[in-house]
Amino acid sequence: MTSTETAxxxxxxHAALWSAGEISASDVVNAACDALVAGLDTPGLRILAAxxxxxxxxxxxxxxxxxxxxxxxxxxPVAGEAGQEAAVRALARRMLAGELKPWELTFRIHQRYxxxxxxxxxxxxxxxxxxxxxxxxxxxxxxxxxVTAEARRLAAHRPVPTEPTDVPS
Length: 169
Prior knowledge:
Blueprint: H1 3-19, H2 25-38, H3 43-49, H4 53-70, H5 81-96, H6 102-113, H7 121-131, H8 140-156
Helix pairs in contact: 1-2, 1-5, 2-3, 2-4, 3-4, 5-6, 5-8, 6-7, 6-8, 7-8
């Protein structure tokens, strides 16, 4: 994967996580800056990257969707299932990158979606398994390995990219 592809995935993940309330608007601005450094460049991305921390909370809401659209990336509002799934995949990639422990991933997913999101059902079950480890014959390492395998499965699935769209300014 090229650095621009990696930056595009990171930016799209930041958008999903911000929409889900997992990260701050200034984190999205930082990801936009990283995308510029990696070689992605559109007018909307430059405007987004230029936001100050003080402006981010107010401006990211309006600037992010057109910036992503210019890059052919998708912004999914968290209210829909596609947005929830995008946030889950982003969290899975964060766990695989070492930013979350396996139990933290399952806990967050279970807290946010329970057993109601088909994509995350196995992670919710694994969170339940962490809760009963002391009563069974499984170890933390065994459950961690299953969580890691499930995170890899989730992170590897990429939705079909959308075509770039013209966004009115």
